[in-house]
Amino acid sequence: MALQADQINQGDDAQSEELLRQVGPLIHINTLENLLNHARARSLWPLSFGLACCAIEMMAVGASRFDLDRIGAGVFRPSARQADVMILAGTISRKMIDPIQTLWDQMPAPKWAIAMGGCTIDGGPFKYPGQYAIVEGADKIVPVDVYVPGCPPRPEALYAALLKLGEKIKAGKNFKG
Q1: Measured distance CA(104)–CA(91) in Å, rounded
Q2: Stretch 53-76: mean pLDDT, rounded?
Q3: Domains located in the chain, CATH noted
Q4: Is the CB of residue 124 less than 8 Å from the CB of residue 103?
Q5: Taking the C-alpha atoms of 60, 65, 70 and 75 in order, what is their torsion angle to the nearest 10 degrees?
Q6: pLDDT at residue 7 is higher than 70
Q7: What is the 3-state secondary structure (H, E, C) of the chain?
Q8: How confident is the model at residue 59, as a pLDDT?
Q9: Which of 4-18, 43-57, 150-164 has the lowest mean pLDDT?
Q10: Which strand ranges, in their side-by-side order, compose the sheet holding 112-116?
Q11: What is the pTM of this model?
Q12: Cα separation, 169 vs 162, whole angstroms
């Protein structure tokens, strides 16, 4: 009888170990940086800043149909000192280099940038030999984290870019100051 009880207890231990292996640990110990990255990824505050036609699509993604509040990016900030994501939306003229750089410098670290639209990414249809007025790529002004192609890109594409940026932040990749 005692032999059977020992065999049963050993069987229970094996089942318990298998269950723990499937479920995982009950207590997760994580670094503070990982916890902060998770919070940062779910509370992105974009700067209210548009340059051209892509800004209309950026406004559309902020409207009720797409509801950026679900991912924590619903409030476009009026000041660079309150924002942590700069969405460069539209054609960047050379006259805008200094204001963009000033706004970027005013944003607190950590900060991220999204280049939205063909004009922002590489100059778009305004790119031709000898042109002097258009910047051929936002990455020449600020470090860009996520690119959103299109002319103009759909609001869903910007929504997906914000989700992609959140994944990148949670992974702890590419912190630029």
Answers
A1: 17
A2: 84
A3: 32-170 (3.40.50.12280)
A4: no
A5: 40
A6: no
A7: CHHHHHHHHHHHHHHHHHHHHHHCCCCCCCCHHHHHHHHHHCCCCEECCCCCCHHHHHHHHCCCCCCHHHHCCCCCECCHHHCCEEEEECCCEHHHHHHHHHHHHHCCCCEEEEEECHHHHHCHHHCCCCCCCECCCHHHCCCCCEEECCCCCCHHHHHHHHHHHHHHHHCCCCCEC
A8: 85
A9: 4-18
A10: 85-89, 112-116, 146-148
A11: 0.78
A12: 10
Q: Quick check: 122 pLDDT over 70? A: yes
The token duo for 62 is: 């902020």
Q: Are 142 and 117 in contact (CB under 8 A)?
A: no
The residue-averaged pLDDT of 88-116 equals 93
The answer, yes or no, to whether residue 126 has pLDDT greater than 90, is no
Task: Name the residue among 66, 64, 91, 71 with its Cα closest to residue 154.
Answer: 66
**Rounded CA separation 74/64 (Å):** 10
Q: Is the dihedral of CA 18, 22, 26, 30 positive or negative?
A: positive
Structure tokens that stand for 52 in this block: 């051209």
